[in-house]
Amino acid sequence: MHYLRPDLLSRRAFLRRSSQLALTGVALPTALNLAAIGEAAAFGATDYKALICVYMGGGSDYANTVVTYDNASYDLYSAVREGGPERTAGGIALARDALTATLLSPDRPLPAGRQYALHPKLTGMASLFHAGDAAVLLNVGPLVVPLTRRDFSSDNRVLYPRPPRLQSHNDQTSIWLSSSPEGSTVGWGGSLADLAQDSNTNAMFTCMSVSGNAVFLSGRDAVPLRVGTSGLAFSGNLTGATMYGSASVKGAFNTLMRQTSVHSIENEYTRVTARSLDAKANIDQALAFAPENTAPFSQFPVTGNSLASQLRVVARLIAARDILGVKRQVFYVSAPGGYDLHDNLISQQSSNLDVLSAGITAFQSAMNQLGIADKVTLFTASEFGRTLTSNGDGSDHGWGNHHFVVGGAVQGRNFYGRPPPVSITNSGAAEDQWHIGAGVLLPSISVDQMAATMALWFGVPAADLPMVMPNIVHFGRSDYPINLGFLG
After folding, report:
1. 202 occurs within a structural domain
2. Which residues contact 109 (CB under 8 A, 6 or more apart)?
3. Is 176:401 a contact under the CB 8 Å cutoff?
4. Residue 420 belongs to domain with CATH number
5. Which of 160, 202, 365, 378 is spaced 20 to 30 Å from 266 by Cα?
6. How far is CA 120 from CA 66, 74, 117, 433, in A?
7. So what's the pLDDT on residue 337?
8. 413 neighbors 399 (Cβ within 8 angstroms)
9. Residues spanned by the domain of 103
């Protein structure tokens, strides 16, 4: 099989995790399963680095996010998307004049005079690009092996395997974040943490989600900690000053919850509970160290932008990294609004991208002010791109997509990857090998390559990359390099 390779997994880690999960199943519903933390890391870190995944659920529309701008390509785009006369807006096409303010001027010009601009609501992202703090990855998506359209059309699925269940939201979300279909229990963010968490004094703060549960952060040993926008949430009043109005009752309860027992299951229950209470106290201390109403955290939009609220918490936790005792961290946040725009693409995507740009721009500004921008890399992800063709008021499920990478270590002000075609017919041109009909892009950069580039920057030894992205073993040729070069 081309998917997860059991021979790459540590038998000791498997046995350890199995025994721990058997016990943590009885843990308090108010606490995360924090017991399964342990396996030795593959590298030791002395500096700090963090990765942040910003997930755009629903499948974002690539063609109106990073918009082809040169006259020849724009005219093809406008024709397919039913634009108006003289390059005006129409159908689901944006007016060319509206793109002038976000026209991107890369350090390395694209071949054949190709130009791109960003959606008009992405002015902040365009500024980050021109400041050298952001790059655009063209036509990214899950691949098991490198494929051309001819390979994709082949009946030989052994030689030319595809990711399973293409265009399925649940499966492609899981494949993007974990290399396996729905039901996967290990994500590549969690696999990064498996290798790195021994560098942290407190391993429970290696993987942190500010947006619910995500397979992306689940490792074989690493366990994600879920943090809300106001800190680590507990139900009831386990962490208050009193219980039932009495400090004495609260003290007695804390003593009871931490005492040992002759029963191993009770002891495990107590251990997880105590660990959860300690985590709550540590998170509260970290957030108190970086109050949200002080610079640089007070600059985040506070109304109608839940992504900004999530990223502000991430920024505050990064500022308090020494309090948490961490050298390596992986975070997961989600962009609100929903990107599954079969209808109402023009207005809803404008709202979504306005929120996205404001949140990411504020976050990068905070990292710059904290003096740690070169140690923090943020990237966008979405289960698939969408069709170039219009269905009347929106676009349908696709495959390849354009994405952003942001941070001080990013080799910005450039595009990475091959500009995909704008035509939806098979003209025989070389670029047409990257679409498979209706403007659905066959990815020319795999998620594995994108992740491997970030993993190497994170500190993962090259030999251990298959433990993070199992399909990376099928890449490495000159046209599909393992390191895409967008991180210094």
Report:
1. yes
2. none
3. no
4. 3.40.720
5. 202
6. 10, 15, 8, 29
7. 87
8. no
9. 6-24+37-234+326-474
Question: pTM here?
Answer: 0.86
Instruction: Note the pLDDT of residue 37.
Output: 36
Pairing of strands 134-141, 401-407: antiparallel
3-state SS class at 328: strand
Compute the average pLDDT of residues 425-440: 67
Give the containing element (helix H, strand E) for 354: helix 345-370
Q: Is pLDDT above 80 for 252? A: no
Given a contact cutoff of 8 angstroms between Cβ atoms, the answer to whether 125 and 357 are in contact is: yes
95 φ/ψ sector (left φ>0, alpha ψ -120 to 50, else beta): beta
What angle is formed at CA 136 by the lines to CA 134 and CA 139, rounded to 5 degrees? 160
Ranking 49-63, 212-226, 262-276, 376-390 by mean pLDDT, the lowest is 262-276
* Band of pLDDT at residue 40, cut at 50, 70 and 90: very low
Calculate ∠ Cα 188-235-23, nearest 5°: 55
Q: Residue 239 corresponds to which tokens in the numbers above?
A: 């962490």
Supply the pLDDT for residue 42: 54
Name the token pair of 426. 């098979």
Longest dimension (CA), the chain: 81
pLDDT tens-digit map of 328-344: 999 999 999 899 999 99
* DSSP structural state of residue 440: P
Q: Are the CB atoms for 2 and 144 separated by under 8 Å?
A: yes
- Give me the half-sphere count of Cα atoms (radius 13 Å) on the Cβ side of residue 11: 1
Into how many domains does the chain fold?
1
Residue 70 maps to a domain: yes
**Is residue 209 a part of any domain in this protein?**
yes
For the cut 70, the answer to whether the pLDDT of residue 296 exceeds it is yes
- On whether residue 307 sits in a domain, the answer given is no
**Please, which pLDDT band fits residue 421 given cuts at 50, 70 and 90?**
confident
The sign one gets for the Cα dihedral 435, 436, 437, 443 is: negative
Count each helix (H run) and each strand (E run) in the chain, helices first.
13, 11
Q: Quick one: pLDDT at residue 10?
A: 44
Q: Could you report the per-residue pLDDT of 384-400, keeping only the tens digit for each? A: 999 999 999 999 999 99
How far is Cα 98 from Cα 346, in angstroms, rounded to an integer?
Answer: 13
207, burial (CB in 10 Å: exposed 0-12, middle 13-18, buried 19+): buried
Q: Is 417 in contact with 342 (CB distance < 8 Å)?
A: no
pLDDT tens across 135-145, in order? 999 999 999 99
Q: How far is residue 334's CA from residue 311's CA, in Å, rounded to a whole number?
A: 9
